[in-house]
Amino acid sequence: MSLVSIGEFSRLSRLSPKALRLYDELGLLLPAHVDPHTGYRRYAATQLEQARLVASLRRLGVPLAQIRDILALEPATAAEEIRTYWAAAEAEHAAQRVLIGHLVDRLQGKKSAMYEVGVRDIPERSLLSLIRRVHQDQLEQVIRELFIHRLRGGGVSRIEGIAGAPFTIYHGEVSGDSDGPVECCWPVPDDQADEIAARFPDLTLRTESAHQEAFVRQEGPGRWGSGTQVEIAIEALFAWASEQQRQPSGGVRSVLIPNPASRGAGPDCEFAVTLR
Q: Which residues of 13-46 are buried (b: 16+ CB within 10 A; e: fewer)?
């Protein structure tokens, strides 16, 4: 097997030695041989195709963790995964274009149509809640674990109507860099609240006062298409509140509404803010 130095492999693959060392540490592109005494890396010419694929995917903005998954796939499956990634990226770019248009219009004093905003009355209710600090990649797992596995799986029924829909309050920014916190809330019947709370001692039972909330509904069942579409929805909420001279109170909420017609796409999701 013909081996070349990391410098030569860097030139041939168009990946810097620093990137090659990082990809080695992450298990993306392992050297064919590492000298046990000096730690010097050498690569095989047969690794060039994989190295160029990694370089191309990084230029497309594919996250390193996703690249690692793609490299483990058969070529046909990997190609389909790349198509799926790019379709999502194009949807995100389209949504970003829309958001930029709204921001430019706002700065120029113009009004532009975003999502339609509705207002509804929410009665006083008892809530079981859990506050956690989580990053974006941990959020769905925390919500599923609490809402689906523990509460619904534990036999806690859902109150009918919008007032009974589980929801999450974002008390802080949740992203790859920021960890909230978030508060996951499950409405429970007042006459059963103490008994249900006793079964989940790590959860907090609290009473939420009656209030109005402004909300936007997603277009179609299941998940929102991209993070930027969520930003547009939230922007629509606050733009509406400003125009109507209504004061939002507390963090943005994502409200999960069961939809039997979603055909497995999951519950509908609405974003909402409480109004003073």
A: bebeeebbeebbeeebbebbeeeeeeeebbbeee
Across the range 216-225, mean pLDDT stands at 60
137 and 262 inside one domain: yes
User: How many domains are there within the chain?
Assistant: 3
Shared domain for 91 and 124, answered yes or no, is no
The answer to whether residues 161 and 228 belong to one domain is yes
Reported confidence tier of residue 14, pLDDT bands at 50, 70, 90: confident
68-107 per-position pLDDT tens digit: 899 889 989 999 999 999 988 887 787 778 778 777 877 7
The candidate with the shortest Cα–Cα distance to 147, out of 198, 94, 228, 203, is 203
Domain that holds residue 108: 77-113
| pTM strictly above 0.85 | no
